[in-house]
Amino acid sequence: MKSPVSNNNTLLYGGDYNPEQWLDHPEILEADIRMMKKAKINTATMGIFSWSTLEPEEGRYDFSFLRERIDTLHKNGIQVILSTPTGARPKWMADRYEEVLRVNEEGQRAYFGFRHNHCMTSPVYREKTREIDRRLAEEFGHHPGVIGWHINNEMGGECYCPLCQQAFRDWVRDRYHSIEAVNKAWNTTFWSHTYQSFDQIEAPSGRGETFLHGLNLAWKRFVTERHLDFTRMEKEAIRSAGSTLPVTINMMYNYTGLNYQEFSEDLDYISWDNYPTWHKTRLYETALDCGMEHDRMRSIKRQPFLLMESSPTSTNWQPISKLRAPGVLALQQMQAIAHGSDGALYFQIRQSRGASEKFHGAVIDHYGGEDTRVFREVTAVGEILEEIREVSGSETEAKVAILYDTENRWAIEDAQGPRNEGMYYRETALSWYRAVKEYGLDVDLIDESQSFCYGDGKSDSYRLVIAPMLYMLRGDITTRLKNFVEAGGILFLTYWSGVVDQDDLCYLGGRPYGMRDLVGFRSEEIDGLYDGMENSGVKVKAENLSEREERILSKMKESYRIDRLAEIEKIEGADVLYTYGSDFYEGRAVLSSHRVGQGYVYGIAAALEQDFCTDLVRAVLEEEGVTSLLGEGHKLPDEVTVNSRTGDDGSVYIFLQNWKDEEQELHLPADCSVILGRDDGKIDALGNLVLKKTLV
Ligand code: GLA
Ligand code: ZN
Predict the structure, then answer these.
(1) Is the distance from the beta carbon of residue 274 to the nearest atom of ligand 1 less than 6 Å?
(2) Is the N end or the C end of the chain the one with fewer CB atoms within 10 Å?
(3) Whose CA is nearest to atom 7 of ligand 1?
(4) Pocket test for ligand 1, best of 46, 251, 273, 346 (most atoms within 8 A of CB)
(5) CB-ligand 1 contact for 10 (6 Å cutoff)
(6) Strands of the 146-150 sheet, one edge to the other
(7) Closest-lying ligand to the alpha carbon of 272?
(8) Ligand 1: does its nearest atom lie under 6 Å from the Cβ of 153?
């Protein structure tokens, strides 16, 4: 399925444009256009925080500045993604209608200020939102220069006002129907927390209850529902004015305040804002971390997404504003494209003179000229994106998926035990992610509600699914995993899996619940290791192993380090490949393999070092005949990443990025032409290379 904003052989380039700050400077507004064109900017996102300019007094609307700018941009070949202004509200509204202001968990109502702090339930806020959205859509929804909608801005946060508390009670009632069911699901008899009626339910709060995990989970789901419901309301307002343009919200890096997957069906395309802290560690480390986030965003709809915001240089809200070394900007923006974005947008085009982001990086800085390092680099990226624009709309066909589930994460991180000092859910997923990336493949990050097919057909099934800490089982996940393996899929399942149900109630009768016959063991106990404490996983003697297992083990080391968590398994049919090297469970399984139908399940009992993940992924994928994007037997050079996208006509684009500050040699796969970069088998220091493989 195509991303609806990118169907015309263009990669979107540009970013947040906030000219309402400059209406008394016509020369600046003019320079904006000239400089945007110079930098090859073709897209401006507008109106994001414009409410007080668009509706300066209640009921008095003035869209003239927007109309003038959109017309002018359009005349100059720059298209607009128009935002609804609802991420921040005018002062008059806060003054007149107190209910639009958020209440914190201590029960205090906020004063006017900041942004992203309105009550999502408030009927007044909704009414005002609906009205301005509808009017904007009437005015601009058919403008030839407008290509899409961006709703609100970086939604998130919680409101504990009486209206939200009541909406939460209603939500709980809708989900559980009877108060007895609630008490059962949340195990409220413990510490005498039993409810007699729905009216007694309160949102979790530091002043009240935070240890009822079922309640916490319900609240987080409700908060997602509030934001989703608000988004739907905004989208309906736009549609009610006849605008059919695609709609998105801009999502955030590693944000756990909302379950973004729930937005999948309501949004026409996914977009997100990427602000990496480059140079804090090696570029390559940051690149893997961002790469995982790009892949997660793409996987929400499994279609091209849009990088909605990024900084052309430093931000000013991170603890320290580090500049980017020359070349890093092109790597950053090309990384988005490599992972499936159909554009690369910035915050913001012209740097503000005052207020909180006056020192945030921008395409045009306070100096205002074109002869700046940043402007030159921005222009160079614009030129690259024009050169490779044919990749727009091409799709990622990942053969490997990592199950990375927000609700599961909520539950793991909220539970007390087995390691309150860190379960490292994201880091664990990242280790497996890194392993697959270093093998040289694309990866999807899907949640438990998504299918195990990367395309539309049955034959597009992933070859390998990696499930780190599948703690909370949602829906029919165990049945689907079983079907996947029986049909020939490979599953890696780690410790701390199959522990609780969708309400966070522990399963009885042994874990991993519903998957004991799949993994071929029962998890008896789990040991939390103190920081600094280690164990090891030691390779077993080859005597009783199958040829397949022997081949896999021959590619792996004798032993690997373990820290943090060690589960003790009672084997029920699986073959044991690695065992613990010490402690009272020395000799018990660390890695096991179990054949089920046409596929295999690898059980991973402990938190093992990176090399283990990297070696196991490599050994198993080689055994399965899944070759890397570089072709059989060709390893990626150190700190080079590879991604691919496939076009409608079957052409495959291969993106190579060198995160090292030195030139490196590369094996170029056969039948490829170079569409960006060198064609002599080398990649520049901090260089990009894009290859095209055409089906013959
Ligand atoms: C976020 C916001 C923008 C701006 C940038 C600055 O992404 O959406 O309005 O504040 O951060 O980095
Ligand atoms: Zn509220």
Answers:
(1) no
(2) C
(3) 273
(4) 273
(5) no
(6) 247-248, 146-150, 79-83, 43-46, 12-16, 341-346, 305-309, 271-273, 250-252
(7) 1
(8) yes
| Whole-number Å distance between alpha carbons of 288 and 444 | 14
Smallest Cα–Cα separation from 7: which of 299, 183, 221, 268? 268
Residues in the chain: 696
Q: How far apart are CA 515 and CA 347, in angstroms?
A: 46
Q: How many A from CA of 187 to the centre of ligand 2?
A: 27
Q: How far is CA 207 from CA 107, 204, 211, 408, in A?
A: 9, 8, 12, 26
- Ligand 1 atom at minimum distance from 153 CA: 8
pLDDT at residue 297 in the model: 98
Report the pLDDT averaged over residues 472-476: 97
Residues paired with residue 692 on neighbouring β-strands, in sequence order? 653, 673
- Give me the percent of the chain exceeding a pLDDT of 70: 98
Q: Is 154 assigned a catalytic role?
A: yes
Q: Which of 172, 175, 161 is nearest to 205 (CA)?
A: 161
pLDDT at position 458: 63
Instruction: Kindly report, residue by residue over 596-619, the tens digit of the pLDDT.
Output: 999 999 999 999 999 999 999 999
- Show the tokens assigned to 661: 């500050």
CB under 5 Å of ion ligand 2: residues: 119, 121, 159, 161, 163-164
| 3-state secondary structure at position 597 | coil
Q: Atom 3 in ligand 1: which residue has the minimum CA distance?
A: 347
Give yes or no for a contact between 617 and 602, defined as CB atoms under 8 angstroms apart.
no
What's the pLDDT at 452?
93
Beta strands in 477-626 (DSSP E): 490-494, 521-528, 535-539, 559-571, 575-580, 589-596, 599-604, 606-608
Q: How far apart are CA 637 and CA 296, in angstroms?
A: 25
Query: Residue 118 and residue 86: Cα distance in Å, rounded?
Result: 9
pLDDT score for 631: 87
Known catalytic residue at 609: no
User: Whose CA is closest to 78, among 36, 45, 43?
Assistant: 43
Q: Which two tokens stand for residue 684?
A: 């520049």
Q: Indicate which residue's Cα is closest to atom 5 of ligand 1.
A: 347
Q: What are phi and psi of 99, to 5 degrees?
A: -65, -15
Identify the active-site residue in 225, 293, 309, 395. Answer: 309
pLDDT given for residue 454 in this prediction: 77
Q: Is 273 in the pocket of ligand 1 (CB under 6 A)?
A: yes
Q: Report the amino acid identity of residue 430.
A: L
Structure tokens at 387: 């050169």
Question: pTM for the whole thing?
Answer: 0.97
